[in-house]
Every structure is written in structure tokens, then in C-alpha cells.
Amino acid sequence: MKYCCQDMDRNINCKCLEHEFECDCPDCIIMYLPKFDEYSIIIHDGGFSGVEIQYCPWCGKKLPLSKRDLWFDVLEHLGFEEPMDEEIPEEFNDDSWYLSDKYREIIKLVKHKL
Ligand SMILES: [Zn+2]
Ligand SMILES: [Zn+2]
Question: How many of the other CB atoms lie within 10 Å of CB of 13?
Fold first, then answer.
């Protein structure tokens, strides 16, 4: 995965030995979710919440639009009503679902409906 700039790269790949999860670490401010292609600012409230961002806070580059809705819509098309609680194809746990050709037709179809 190539990020827009070094600062982004450093922050997303921040490896802190003190905190197991980046959400717990005050030094990590940005997280990237490959399955949604989504960048967000981590809210350090003890959970896994974040606020989606559309521009890199360091270099100002426009970031990809989150594919969170598309993720849900494609899975719904495949018959998964509650994808968070169901066993979904493993491609949907990272960015493979929209990078591979496998679901390209479905993605096109679903996008068309949006
Ligand atoms: Zn950047
Ligand atoms: Zn830390």
C-alpha cells in the first residue's frame, strides 16, 4: 500500500510497543481501513471510532471516497443482510474485493443503482 506522503505512511504504520491497538495510542492519529478504503481520524475514546477525512492533513492530497456504503451494498447484493455478523467472503476483509476482477461486475451494477 502506497500512501500520499511520508507523514501519512509513518502515521498509519505507526508501530508503538506500548499500545497493542493503534486506537489506544495517543501518537497515532490516522487510521486506514483497507476494506472500506477509508481514512479517518482516530477518536481516542477507548473504542474503535473515527471521523472520516477526505484530505490528507499533512500534504493536502484528496483521499479516496470511502467505499463503506458500497461494501454494504455489494454484500447485500450477494445475499448478506448483516455482513458484520455473518461469515462473508474473505476478500471483503481487506481491499481485495474492489481490487480484484471477481466482483467488478457486481460493483458496477450496484454503483449504477446508487
Ligand atoms: Zn499526504
Ligand atoms: Zn503508543
Answer: 12
